[in-house]
Amino acid sequence: MPIEHVPAGSGDGEFIRTPSGALVPAVIDPFHRALHHVAPSGLVGDTGQTTGMRRLEAISGKTVGAKSLWMGQTHVPASTASANHHHGASETAIYVVSGHPRFVFLDVEGGEPREQVVETGPGDYVFVPPYVPHREENPDPDVEAVVVIARTTQEAIVVNLDDLDWSQVTITG
């Protein structure tokens, strides 16, 4: 197959040739053609916060130009709990790095609503569906719990609530 010469910056509408000579889809902007490395020193603490926890943003629209993903760390100090909250329309996946955090939500599927506790440890994963009121707890008196969080929105949505009751949840979109 003969190779057609396409000058840098030009193309047929579907592909363009970069200054390095590579052909890439025309819909991919220059910022999204490379991998982005975020070292621990590059984590950003300017995120939506829940009382009792510290969130550090790693991958987002703000840090790497992500369009539909947010990822970062959450640190829960020893003997503490977050405020009750939910993450809006975002699905949330949690990976436990260290400690033994607990995740508390209101189980409304039985006869009477009751608090349900999910006990975790290093290596465990937890899935939090959209809008589910919950809180994180670290009952250990000496060891901070650290988790990695990924969300299906590029920003860390945090809606703080008075309690775990669904009556305070407003579904949007």
Automatic annotation (TrEMBL):
<feature type="domain" description="Cupin type-2">
    <location>
        <begin position="75"/>
        <end position="147"/>
    </location>
</feature>
<protein>
    <submittedName>
        <fullName>Cupin domain-containing protein</fullName>
    </submittedName>
</protein>
<dbReference type="Pfam" id="PF07883">
    <property type="entry name" value="Cupin_2"/>
</dbReference>
<dbReference type="InterPro" id="IPR013096">
    <property type="entry name" value="Cupin_2"/>
</dbReference>
<dbReference type="InterPro" id="IPR014710">
    <property type="entry name" value="RmlC-like_jellyroll"/>
</dbReference>
<dbReference type="InterPro" id="IPR052535">
    <property type="entry name" value="Bacilysin_H2HPP_isomerase"/>
</dbReference>
<dbReference type="InterPro" id="IPR011051">
    <property type="entry name" value="RmlC_Cupin_sf"/>
</dbReference>
